[in-house]
From TrEMBL:
Source taxon at top rank: Bacteria
The DDE domain, residue ranges: 1-51
Record-linked Pfam families: DDE_Tnp_IS240 (PF13610)
Protein name: Mobile element protein
Organism: Escherichia coli
Length: 73
């Protein structure tokens, strides 16, 4: 059992980390920049956790392909 109430909820726990990162940027000017920034943060977090390994099958260029697919480059 976790001591802090919001950490019991997986979504709220993840939201807290994202909120901490976004708080340091002092908000967003537009919805477009907010969407792109949050998408980038989530992709980098998934890569760091190893959750995206199914997309690149051990190929070193796979991470690059995944990021380009997410951001449609």
């Amino acid at each position: 059992h976790r001591q802090i109430k919001y950490r019991n909820n997986v979504i709220e726990c993840d939201h807290g980390k994202l909120k901490r990162i976004i708080g340091a940027t002092l908000g967003f000017k537009s919805m477009k920049t907010a969407y792109a920034t949050i998408k980038g943060i989530e992709v980098m977090r998934a890569l760091r956790k190893g959750q995206a390994s199914a997309f690149y099958y051990g190929d070193p260029l796979g991470e690059m392909r995944l990021v380009s697919r997410v951001f449609e480059m």
